[in-house]
## 1
Amino acid sequence: MTLQRTLQKQGSIFSSTSDTETILHLIATSSGKDVISRFIDAVRQLEGAFSLVALSPTKMIGCRDALGIRPLVLGELDGACILASETCALDIIGARFVRDLKHGEMVIATAEGVESLFPFETQKPRFCIFEYVYFSRPDSSVEGRNVYEVRKKIGAELAIENPVDADIVVPVPDGGTPAAIGFAQAAGLPFELGIIRNHYVGRTFIQPTDSIRHMGVKLKHNANRRMIEDKRIVLVDDSVVRGTTSQKIVQLLRDAGAKEVHMRVASPPTRSSCFYGVDTPETAKLLASRMSIEEMAKFIRVDSLGFLSIDGLYRALGETARENKQPQFCDACFTAEYPTRLPDQKALTTSGLCQLSPQADSESG
Ligand code: SF4
């Protein structure tokens, strides 16, 4: 936004608010001599998360931001270079996975081969930890870890940290399924598909209004009554955002005759918005930003509620614990410790258009 305003003052005309259009204007207005130097000039002005793929008549360029917040992988098919955000895309077209691009890496693919450059100052990587919790597909491997295996480990950590006396473990499909399998295996409880998902409707958390979201939940999930009736249930979901979807799912289970519903969440409480390209609600709308765990349990109407700790999440990723001074990942939606400045948010706050959490504001410098 800040860059877009600067470009507009210099005469650039925008037809959208897309970040990609801003990058195109930066490339177009650069004084670099060729497309590569203009591209480098443009990406060096960006702050935040991006994984870009650009085409010129003779080149394909791929670039990850300096911290490698978002993924980008290199593949190969019949001698041609492929760039994709996840390895599952390579599987689908029968391409071979070559490697993840490194944080801050830029690759240039031409008919002669692939060249690699590092146009940014060296920094420690801060890959988005939420990719492992929710965004990436479970059949992908990102940064050397298989997402499905990580999610099962997350479920096992969750069971160790938040044990519960229950009859069955039920996932909120599909996001909670691998973690629920891990939970059930670690807890020695049966795993059952107590909720069946309709695959013909989209993600509910990005729907624009509460009423459309509520209808979306009903269209999306149905209780498998035979599995639920008279059972004490551990309900596993990947995360709780606004809490309204969880509330509906819990009601669905109660209406189907569940005796008890104990919710276990495969991530820490989501307390802060993401400013790195994810359409999450503003911080004030996140349930965990305004309620204690006990209050959230009451709001969602569960018999008990437990979240994975931040260290538990890091353990599931094979780390001993979170390095608090220099965390190994971006985990800002759980900790409000943003790995970059947030100049756009600062601009919005000073113009009175939005309110950041106190930590987020101080991080934005
Ligand atoms: S704030 Fe959360 S969702 Fe956004 S990049 Fe960081 S970890 Fe990922």
## 2
Amino acid sequence: MIQPQKNSKEKKGRNFLYPKKPAGKLYNYRKWVSYVLLLFLFAAPHLKMGGEQMVLINFIERKFVFFGLIFTPQDFYLFALAMLVVLIFIVCFTVVLGRLWCGWVCPQTIFMEMVFRRIEYWIEGDANQQKKLDAQPWTREKVLKKGFKHSIFVFISFLIANTFLAYLIGSQQLYKIITEPINQHVSGFLSIWLFTAVFYFVFAYVREVVCTVICPYGRLQGVLLDNQSLIVAYDENRGEPRGKLQKAVIDSSKGDCVDCGLCVQVCPTGIDIRKGTQLECVNCTACIDSCNEVMLKIHKPENLIGFYSQDFIAERKPFKLGIKAYGYTAVLFVVILIFSSLVYKRTEVQTTVLRASGTTYQARPDGTISNLYNAELINKTNKDINFVFRSDNPDDKIEFIQKTGMLPKEGTVSITFFLIKNPKDLKSYKTDVKFEVNSNNRIVSSAETTFFSQPQ
Ligand code: SF4
Ligand code: SF4
């Protein structure tokens, strides 16, 4: 049997791949998906929603913003839960549609296949021309082509690094690093170039190794997929026994695969999909396009390689969702429900009231009883809030030692005060009390604690 042409070359222990330029219907769809995602990725940190950066993932200050919703350090559990929702969603998605995320949506693949690889095709040509260029000595043409390509790679890596930092530290802070003198932002300046170097190294050299070796999600595939998952697969019942097409010879003993090797040549991870499901397959669908092109030429039906379940390939069973898919969807539904109810119950202001340490109660000369408290108010919005702090019992009095009526945006204020109660309202040694934070005639937060008095 003729072996398909390899799309790789040994380079000091590394099988450096030269995938053939893909083309076809699915590749065109992927292009459009990547344009939309790239536009969003580069624009999101520079767009505002509700006065805040549209998406901010600031781990240093533990501030996260998603589409105008601000999560402060106190909301970290919500952020963790949101990440869990995303994770379970990807798991559900994988169980049903395999690694489609990797081939179509993952930023690594989008940048690699839709940006860097296309620049490479543009400057150095298709796979064979690239191999030839790499094999030839350092002529003027090679120096110019390689120099030009790598300059563009560095420039795009620089743009990605800036965008990445805009998500991490905020676009305003990034703007300051870029526009103000370097000595005022040495660490920021170094970070930009460090990330530029990392992205350049990843996209110029590491490439598909990120997907096939480094990324843990790829390793999880074996656990997540089952026989009902839809994956990019070769229909071996139809394709085998494979064999070269002989002109003017109709050989009915042969399958539809003409062993042209195009599906292997076009694969960005260098695998032969005809050997069955492999962890390295990122479901990019490039092999489907190239095989369909061949099928069209030899007048055979499309989708010798297509989206199939293992059950379909083996027993021609039609696609249906498996038990795993239902299980993960149920878990996803429950987690989304918990997350949405917590977001709904989340208040703009978080209030904590604690009795001042080392104190119990004070009997006042006028017969009333007081307790001393410390309150902390946290503003989770990006607007200043004028507020009134009071007890929910109109008969109670509050005597402030340290008072404020303004809560700065994303800020915190502390209040120290006596709560004064009439003894007739106290039925036991310990009474539950509740405080309200009122802004514009609306209760924006409340807190409960206890009030001590003399034993009754
Ligand atoms: S086998 Fe096909 S779908 Fe999988 S990575 Fe290779 S080209 Fe993409
Ligand atoms: S592209 Fe299709 S016909 Fe050609 S080797 Fe691959 S499976 Fe066979």
